[in-house]
């Protein structure tokens, strides 16, 4: 099964990124080794592009990048696809958040930018958000709404009834992040779109993740790997569990299993690549 892997999908927060937001040297070296062996890397995150550390993005900018839980995909800086929500579907939600829940920080993502009605400079800087007025926010082509409840106490039920059938709500980080997106998009559908262009299928995918927005993809991949720090539901669904993000779990799995298997596959090929 490992010899069949052609594509690696990598969640960022809690998976590739350590708790301090860095990526270990061992992990970077493993990913570069995978690239040299012709494997396709897909960085698959809930973050918009604006929140990706610049140096890391530049190091792997030629690869596939899936942002905002599958709404947007770039390859070598060029847009592969971008899915937005209809304005008439998001307006009732934005008005409710703005008027009824002003104590919660919320923002929208639109074409790589992040907008909020919050006037707190400290919070806005923390979440890379630009302060604006609700009318401007509503005029944008929005691909994701995110509500951040530091105390994990946002009344989700008060928003659910406002959701149009073409929208969906996703709660991650045990309630800290409440995200609203187009119904048809996910990390899984993004990878499926990439695979279609590569003439591959999900059996060719190795995926890593730690939270419930990774669940569909972990279940569907040829090999799904949960981090040791992952949500228990994800751990139970994964085929394998590797070390935690702070212990370079991605590098542990790739270095211990995938690269040795790839080396065996290459050595048995009639025309091996020069690695």
Task: Give me the secondary-structure topology.
Elements: E1 7-10, H1 25-36, E2 40-44, H2 54-59, E3 64-67, E4 72-75, E5 78-82, H3 87-100, E6 105-110, E7 113-116, H4 121-126, E8 130-131, H5 134-139, E9 144-148, H6 157-160, E10 167-172, E11 177-182, H7 187-198, E12 205-209, H8 215-220, E13 223-226, H9 232-237, E14 240-241, H10 249-267
Question: How would you characterize this protein structure?
Answer:
The protein has 275 residues and is of the alpha/beta class. The chain has two domains: 2-82 and 185-267, HAD superfamily/HAD-like (Rossmann fold, 3-Layer(aba) Sandwich); 87-182, Hypothetical Protein, Haloacid Dehalogenase-like Hydrolase, Chain: A, domain 2 (2-Layer Sandwich). It is 33% helix and 23% strand. The strands form two sheets. Strands 5-4-3-2-1-12-13-14 form an eight-stranded mixed β-sheet, with helices on both faces. A six-stranded mixed β-sheet has the order 8-7-6-9-11-10. Strand 6 (105-110) and strand 7 (113-116) form a beta hairpin. Helix 1 packs parallel to helix 10 (249-267). The protein starts with 6 loop residues before the first strand and ends in an 8-residue tail after the last helix.
């Amino acid at each position: 099964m490992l010899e069949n892997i052609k594509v690696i999908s990598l969640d960022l927060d809690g998976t590739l990124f350590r708790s301090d937001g860095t990526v270990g040297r061992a992990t970077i070296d493993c990913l570069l080794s995978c690239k040299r062996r012709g494997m396709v890397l897909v960085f698959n995150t809930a973050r918009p592009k604006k929140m990706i550390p610049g140096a890391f993005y530049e190091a792997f900018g030629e690869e596939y990048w899936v942002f905002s839980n599958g709404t947007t995909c770039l390859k070598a800086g060029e847009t592969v696809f971008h899915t937005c929500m209809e304005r008439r579907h998001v307006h009732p939600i934005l008005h409710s958040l703005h008027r009824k829940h002003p104590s919660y920080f919320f923002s929208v993502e639109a074409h790589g930018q992040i907008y909020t009605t919050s006037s707190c400079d400290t919070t806005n800087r923390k979440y890379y958000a630009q302060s604006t007025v609700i009318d401007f926010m509503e005029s944008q082509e929005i691909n994701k709404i995110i509500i951040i409840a530091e105390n994990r106490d946002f009344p989700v039920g008060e928003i659910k009834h406002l959701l149009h059938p073409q929208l969906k709500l996703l709660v991650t980080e045990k309630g800290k992040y409440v995200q609203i997106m187009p119904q048809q998009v996910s990390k899984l559908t993004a990878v499926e779109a990439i695979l279609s262009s590569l003439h591959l299928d999900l059996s060719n995918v190795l995926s890593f993740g730690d939270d419930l927005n990774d669940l569909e993809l972990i279940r569907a991949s040829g090999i799904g790997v949960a981090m040791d720090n992952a949500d228990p539901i994800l751990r139970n669904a994964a085929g394998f569990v590797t070390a935690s993000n702070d212990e370079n779990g991605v590098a542990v799995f790739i270095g211990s299993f995938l690269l040795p298997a790839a080396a065996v596959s290459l050595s048995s090929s009639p025309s091996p690549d020069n690695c």
